[in-house]
Every structure is written in structure tokens, then in C-alpha cells.
Amino acid sequence: MAHMANRENPADTSLKILWVNPINLPDYDAAIAELIGQVKLPNAEVHVVSLKLPEPIRLTNLEWRVFESQIWLPVTQIARYAANEGFDGYAIGCFYDTALDEAREISGDAVVCGPCLSALQIIANLCNRFSVVIGVEKWKVQMEDRIRHYGYFDKLASFRTLGMHVDEFQLDPDKTEAAIRQAVKDAIEIDKAEAVILGCTIEFGFYAQLQKEFGVPIIDAVYACYKATEAAALNKVQFGWKPSRLYSMAPPDAERLAASGIFAGGAPIGNTIIVPRT
């Protein structure tokens, strides 16, 4: 039987990955690019972008559904850009996994990942019960719905809130770390969680120290989503495991797509940082 896998050394296989910070300010682009640069494969070129949205819209977070509603189409338009520009993977950098299904429908051969599903898939291999650390109570219902939709709800021990908004996480790292530390402690000791997910991409920079202190897996959403996207991209290149386009995964046909005018204006990409292959 013929072996269909690409027999090249995976380390020699070029990958092109797109990460979107789905806000229209570049506040976190450099920090996310630096994090990805620390852990990416040498053969991966990563484009970290934020959105270009019409004035006067200015979004620094998607905590409220009314804010999130403004970026469903732009995130999907960028998925189409990823398809046309030869990206192997596309990561949507919000733990709500905003427009994940819509982006997957139109992404061509690019595999699309979101932080929530990526973190759940990782943590399911590491424990039987997990907790999620979130900023405020407002997030709980929406994230609970996502976890239920993905089929991991029976493993959810609890949500633990920090009493902090997204914009506050990186302002005073010591304060944020202390709040996460207490949330993790309560999740483990009270809720009997065996592992913890940090339920926002902007909760970056805290997992390693706390994981060392508590001795349980603590999943950073940026790393989880990026490495899931990178692994899926590598599988696509090496094994041909690209998105299906049958039945529920079928995009609009070319004629209907053109008539819709959805992609006529190009991709709404604002700031861009490219992390090169090394």
C-alpha cells in the first residue's frame, strides 16, 4: 500500500500561520508576537495582526456581546484572506472562539483554531476535571455554552472569577498574578479541579510560575491556541489533513460568493507583525 505522507523532515517543512488579535487597536500585537516567537517551530512564519475597523469604533476587548458583534464579519473576512494568501493555519485570538465556525467555512485549505477549543482539547488529555479562570461573572454563561457545545461540560469543575476586566490584566502584573493565584487555589481546594485553564488570551505571562507552585497543569490560552494551530498546519502539510468541504463544511459557490459582495473590500487587517522563520 502506498504511503501518502510527506516524507520530508517536519522541521524542514515551511509553515505559514496567521494569528488575529480581534480588536482594532495594536495594544497586544507586539506582546503576542513575542510570546509566539518564543515557542514557534523554526520553520514557521507567523503573521500577528489586529483589525482595521471604520471610525469611530475602538475595541480593546470583546467582553460584551455588543462589542463582539462588531468583529464577526472582519474575522471571517480575514479567514478568506488566509485562504487566498496561502496560510496553512489561522488562529482567532479570543477565548470566546468568535466566528470560529464561520471562519472555518470560508478558510479554504487553512485550518482554523480558537483558544477555547484548543485549550479544552489539550486539558482533556491531562485530567478528568478542570476549572476556568475568567475575568468577571459576565463571561460565564457564554463560555459555559461554548464548553457545552464542544462536549466538555461534564469535565468542568467550576469557573473562578478574578473581578478584573481584560483591559486590567496587564496593567499591574503583580496584582493580576495574585488574583489568579487565589482563583487557582480555590479551584483546586474547593472545586476539586485537577487542572486549570486561564480563560482569556490576555491572561498571558502567568501560567508558568503558578503551575510550578501548584503542581497541576495550568493552560495559557495563547500558547494552547498557537500550538494547536501550528500542529494542525503541520498535519495539513505533512499528511494532507486540510478542512473538509463536504456538506456542513461547504462554502458558498463562487457565483453566490461574488454576488454577496462580502469580500469585495479586501481583508480588514490593521497592524501587522511578522515573526520570521529562523
List the helices and strands and how they pair.
Blueprint: E1 15-21, H1 29-39, E2 44-51, H2 65-68, H3 72-84, E3 89-92, H4 100-105, E4 111-113, H5 115-123, E5 130-134, H6 140-150, E6 156-161, H7 173-189, E7 195-198, H8 207-214, E8 218-219, H9 221-239, H10 254-260, E9 269-275
Parallel strand pairs: 1-2, 1-3, 3-4, 5-6, 5-7, 7-8
Antiparallel strand pairs: 2-9
Q: List the domain count as a whole number.
A: 2
Poorly predicted runs of 5 or more residues: none
Radius of gyration: 19 Å
Shape: globular
Residue fraction in strands? 15-25%
The total of beta strands comes to 9
Sheet with the most strands: spatial strand order: 4-3-1-2-9
| Averaged pLDDT | 96
The helical percent reads 25-40%
CATH-defined fold name of the largest domain? Rossmann fold
* Secondary structural class: alpha/beta
Quick one: biggest sheet?
A: 5 strands, mixed
CATH architecture of the largest domain: 3-Layer(aba) Sandwich
In the CATH scheme, the class of the largest domain would be: Alpha Beta
**Helix/strand order:** EHEHHEHEHEHEHEHEHHE
Oligomer class: single chain
